[in-house]
Write a structure and sequence with these properties.
Elements lengths: L1 E10 L1 E2 L8 E4 L14 E6 L2 E7 L9 E3 L2 H7 L6 E8 L8 H10 L3 H5 L3 H12 L4 H19 L1
Antiparallel strand pairs: 1-7, 2-3, 3-6, 4-5, 4-7
Helix pairs in contact: 4-5
């Protein structure tokens, strides 16, 4: 898992007649990421909405894009031209096997103190829940789930 964008404000782009790509985000500084369609997967957050294993669309020598469907737009209450806050992680083929990597995700989300304020059993349960998943994609999904829980608990 590699963070490719961190809590950055982007414009939700509307391009009429562009099929599934009518509403999309262009992810800055991703032109150098190599991969064919379907091989580049990302997870993360758009505003407070959890994105789970979405395709990052390759474009020759241009920054990559993700499509933002109607369900997501409805959940975040945004449309073309609106600004959204985006954090994305590029899936790699390695599983997360170090607790320090998980803690770094909580730190990057500004929630490490909230995590550390939990009792030891609850911390261990979260770590075990994440590390027990068989694929990195499922691990990232669980990290995002726990980040959302910590956010809700914090607020």
């Amino acid at each position: 898992m590699k963070k490719i964008i961190d809590n950055q404000e982007l414009e939700l782009i509307y391009k009429s007649g562009n099929g599934a790509w009518t509403y999309h985000l262009v992810i800055p500084n991703t032109a150098e990421i190599d991969g064919a369609w379907g091989s580049l997967k990302v997870s993360g957050l758009i505003d407070d909405y959890e994105l789970k294993e979405m395709n990052l669309a390759p474009r020759k020598e241009e920054d990559k894009m993700i499509s933002i469907n109607q369900k997501i737009r409805k959940e975040i209450g945004k449309t073309g031209g609106d600004k959204v806050t985006v954090t994305l992680y590029l899936h790699t083929h390695d599983r997360i096997n170090k607790n320090s990597q998980i803690l770094k995700c909580f730190e990057d989300a500004g929630l490490l103190d909230s995590f550390k304020s939990l009792n030891k059993d609850d911390q261990d349960e979260i770590i075990n829940d994440i590390t027990s998943k068989k694929t990195e994609a499922k691990q990232i999904e669980q990290i995002n789930h726990h980040i959302n829980q910590l956010l809700n608990w914090k607020n």
